[in-house]
Structure formats: structure tokens, C-alpha cells
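User: We ran a pulldown and think these components assemble together. Before we commit to crystallization trials, I'd like a predicted model of the whole complex to look at. Sequences follow.
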Amino acid sequence: MEKEESGINQKEAPPGFLYKYGLFLICAVRLSFRGHVAFYAWMIFLSIISLFGLRAYCNQFVEGLITTGMTDQVSWGVYIANFTFLVGMAAAAVMLVIPAYIYKDEEMHNIVIFGELFAVAVMIMCMLFVTVDLGRPGRFWHLIPVIGHFNFPISMLSWDVVVLMGYLALNAHVCGYLLYMKYLGQKPNKWLYMPFVFLSIVWAISIHTVTAFLYVGLAGRPFWNAAIVAPRFIGSAFTAGPALMIVAFQIIRGTTGYHIGDRAFRLLRQIVTISLLISLFLFGCEIFKEFYSQSLHNASARYLFFGLHGHYALVPWIWSAIAMEIAALMILLSRFSRKPGSYGWLNLACIMATVGIWIEKGPGLIIPGFLPTPLGEIVEYIPTYNETMVCVGIWAIGALVFSWMLRLAIPITSGVFHRTEDE
Amino acid sequence: MSDKSTGNNSGADNTSLGKNAAGKKEMFKPLSRRSFIKAGALGAFLLGGTSIALLPLRKFKNDTSLEAFFQQHYERLTPERMDRILKRIEQEIKERHGVDAHVKDPKPIPGVQFAYALNISRCVGCRRCVHACVEENNQSRDPEIQYIRVLEMPEGTFDVEKSNHYYEPDTVPAKGKYYMPVQCQQCENPACVKACPVGATWKDEDGIVVIDYDWCIGCRYCEAACPYWARRFNFAEPKIPKEQINPDMAYLGNRIRPKGTMEKCTFCLGRTRNGLLPKCAEACPTGSRQFGNLLDPDSVIRHILREKRVYVFKEDVGTRPKFYYWFDK
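Assistant: Here's a predicted model for the assembly, 752 residues in total across the polymer chains.
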């Protein structure tokens, strides 16, 4: 692509797609490593934690899952607990997509890409959590249809694989396409992203419902075998997801100066408030069902809330979760969380709601499902140090991926990082 | 993260990419010394850190051949391939444990549906069945896996929450208690088979629910699904003292299992598909355990189903077990 010496840009053959995309990738790689000292410190901090997690996983890979606190009695632990919570976070991206695309809210349009990138990072964490939970991760290829043996549609886990991969692909495509078009300075082709956006709205509900059905479909586990589990999943996901996004977007706004208007935060706050109300209502329904009739099927609920036969490890956790969620709701309903410009109370409410829901949906759902065992035994589960490090490492990787994607996405959406014609 | 990006009113970040964001000129500028040192330090940190993180893998013994890694699902194996696999397994057992094993693949006998009947009036809770099973089926001894769990129940209730799994009286049976051993119920409508995402467990033609141990990915969804707590997971590499290894093994039955896979009672299919009784039935000193073919009208199983007060455990979950409990008095 030589420039004519006369300085006039002759009409050359336009550069091919691969050339443009390749240049974009190279520039993106270079941009990834540029930043403020604070950016470097943050990324190095996350990398160190991720490496600790990787080391812990290597231990587990060599020794087997004996390095975790799981037993035959409680055969799923914090790995699947985190997975379940994070699928909800991924689904919550839809709460940005609906206002942006269906209600055509301009304010939301700016940040919906960040929400979708959030979903991509969270999905990667979900897949990591499932992988570290497998007894033989190298044999994952057994899941691939034709060359493996994919038990679809009978196994609910097979449904989960399909919907999660599909959702990751949908979000990655929409974000990738819109960001690349913005980088090129071209108007995106509606047909290449709008159908996928609308599909992702429906798909978001499906990923979390299918994950709920993993649990609901097990007749031998009465704590899970209840119709309310799927609605509770959706309610809590749409509380914790937007709550986490409120905090994340403030950090983005503060550190990069990218403009995110107060209206967006108001809308997100309303979503969190209503979802938390619904979530707590459904929680109340569950409590009534478990305890009013005093049937023996409530053994798991008794273990969770009050302890059973001298075992009460989860009791302080679940009551803290309830207290945090109710306190969060009180703050959100009060005028404290509405002070424009100063979000201290709102952030407190969001963090409490998220932590409370993590407890309620993670350890507060998985472990009581296993205890008492179908044979009436209680063997309490405590995650080991190694297991905890793997979890922390995966969270760090998720934060790393999200920060890295924002490192590219924000300059693109603000117009700083774009393709130029001076070749 | 502190807010250090003040003074920049464009709302853009301050990485000074500027206008020539993706220009070729900007791209192929020679690397400054500062950038070079930065890149070097970062590279060293990442490479060094990752190497340290991967250090525990030094202890990893890769004893899986490529052929073993890509082994197909049991139902897709030709007889020739199965022969090769059986020989390979025998060789692996010789190398790892120093034992000459004979690993076979006994097929279901046509016209047979195996079922089990257990007389809870007679069971005294001696647990000989538990230990005979462990000797027969080459379970890991450390951590110890036992397929059969005997529940000591107080008389007057079926509620397993009131059971004691760890009873150790001087003599059994203890007064006021009855004993209910539980193992895989080989259900007609198994919840575990529905759950498995890779189809590694299925109900065979003679009614036994089997596991292809080499196909299992260790997700433990089947263990969550089972209403009878019948399935066990190998959290570590199974450790069995050499002298306790039972060399007569079956591919879908009692061969030594890999780390990270599921296992359970298989009604001793290596024995029962060759006309023998399961080891637990043989070991029971009180005659509480009866085993046979449901399709044979003269079998003791059919006699019990006709004549005795029979019930199944957790009938309400709809799994239709082929394990029948009965009582005389």
C-alpha cells in the first residue's frame, strides 16, 4: 500500500478484511499493555492472585479432588456454588439490554456493551469453575456430539452446556461486532447484531432457568425438588447482577473518566430494588412452605436455618445473608440511596445484596441440598485452603478478563481508539 | 483504584494513543528503551510466575497412553478393540500393582432380569456384606470406599434421619433396633442414568446399571441425582494393598478404577453373569440376602415377591428399584 509521492491519496484497492482485522488485533495487543500506573498495579495484583489459583489447581490436578473438602455426602461444593451464582450474573446482562434496545434508552446504549462484556467475563469464570470441578477434565471431549457421546436432551447438564456456550457466543459476537464497527468508524449492519441481541434477551432467561432445572429435576433431593427454585434464581440474579454492575460502572467512571450518566444508575437501582423485593418475597414463600406444615421433608431447611443434630455450620451464614438482603432493601427503599451524585449508601446496599445473594444461592443452596443425605446422615462440608485458592484465582481471572476487555472497549466507544486512513 | 485521570476533559483515557490510534506509522515506530525494559520485566514476571504456579505438576505421573486417552464409549467398541483394551488394562495393573489380573467383559445373559431381596427381620447388622463387597470389588482402601451402608434404625420408624450409620455396640443386633443395608438399587427408572451428560452410565439388558469408568468425566451429577446415596467417587488415586487385590476383574464391574471416576455396586456382574451369587449374598451369615432372576418364575426372588411382605425404599421418587426389602414379623 504505497502512497503516491504527490501526496494525493490515489484510489487503491481497499484493504482486505483480514488485513484490517489483523491490524486491529495488533493494535489491541499493544493497547492492552498501555496504561496508568494504577492500571498496571491492578492487573499485576490480579495476575498474582490468578497464579496462586493456578498453583492450587495444579495441586488438585495431581492429587485429585481429595484436596477439596468435598465428600461422597456433599459431592458438590464451592466450585459449583460459585458457578451457580455466576450464571445468574451472566443472565443479568439482559437487564441492560432490554432498556437499551427495546426501550431505546440512549443513556443505556452507552453502557450496554460493558454489561455484555461483563457477561462474557462471567461466562468464562463459569466454565472455569465447572472445569476445575471435574474429576477428569481432560476427558471433556466426551461431551462433544458425534465424536463423544452427548446425552442431550435427557441430561439437564447437557442442556446447560448448550445454553451456556450459546450465550457466550451470542454476547461475544454482539460485543465484538459492535466494537469493531465503532473502531472502523462504520455503521453496524442491523441484521448482523439486532437479531442476536433479541435472541440474547430470551437466551439469558434460559441459561439461568436451565441451571435451576439441574437442581429441580432431582426427585431424591427434596430441598431442590421445588418449582420455586427457578423463579428464585431469576429474582436473585436480577438483583445481584445489576447491583454488581452499579459498583463496577462507578469504578469505570472514576478511573477512566468515561461518561456514565446518573440516569443509568437510577434505572439500575430501580431494577435492583424491584428484583430484591421479588427475590425476598419468593424466599418468604419458600420458608413458609418448608416450615408451616412441619413435614419431615424440611430436614434440609432445618439444617440450614437452625442446625440439625448438633450440626450448624451454615446457620450464621444464612442469617447474615437474610439480614444483609433486608438491610439492603431498606436502604434501597429509603431516600438515602437516591441522593444524586453521592452513591455511598447505594453502594453499601448493592454490596450487601450481592454478598447476601451469593451466600443464599451458593453455599445456602448447594450444601443443604446434600444434607441430610438421602440416608439421613450429616457430614458437614468446609472448603479447604487449596479449594478456596482455586476459587479466588478464578475470580481474579474473571476480573482480569473484564478489566482487559474494558481497556480496549472504553477507548473504542469513546472514539480514541479507531482506525485511521494514513497507511 | 484511585481516580488519577483528572485533568483530561475529553472523557477519554489518558494513554495518549491520540489521533493516530491505529496508524501504521504509530504501529511500527521503533520500540523505545523504556518500552523494551517494561516489556522485558512484564514478560519475566508472567513467565516466571506461571512457571512457579505450574511447579506442582512435576509430581504428575502421566501413565495414560494416547490410545487410552482417545478410547471410545463402551457401546462403540468392537470386540477386537475391547480385547486390546482388556489386555492393556491387565498390563497397567501389572505395572502399577504387581498383580496378574484377568480382566474380562461378561455380557448380560438373555432372558435375565436380576433382582435382590433383603429380609430386614433377619439382618443383624454384622456388616459382613460390607467388607466382603470391598474385598471382592477392589475399592480403594485409602480413602476407603464401601458400596453398602448399613443403617441401624430404631424400631417403629422408616425415617432414615433417625438412623445411625456408625453403630459400634459390643454385639449385634442391639435391642430395639433393626438393620437396613442400602446399596445401589439397580432401578428400572434410574435417576443417575438420566443425569449423566456423557452417557457413561446406563441400564444394561439384565437390569444392572453399569458405568463405563473410562468414559466418566467425574462431574458427579449422578451422585447428586441418586436418591439412595449409592454412588461413590474416587477423590484420589485408589490405594489397595497388593495382597488384597482380587485378580478376577470385569470391565464394567470390579476392575481397579481410575482417579476421578464414579463407581458403585454392580450386583457383582463378573460373578452373577457367570452363574454365581453376589459376594454380599454369599457372605451374609443369617440368610437375609436373596438374589435371582425376576424372569424365572421358580426363582427365590419370585417366591419372595409372591409370598412375603415386600416394599421398596423411597418408592415415592419413582425410580422403581429392583432391590426389595421384606419382613417376616
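Residues 114-327 of chain B form a domain with the Alpha-Beta Plaits fold (CATH 3.30.70.20). That may be worth checking against your pulldown data before setting up trials.

User: Thanks, that helps.
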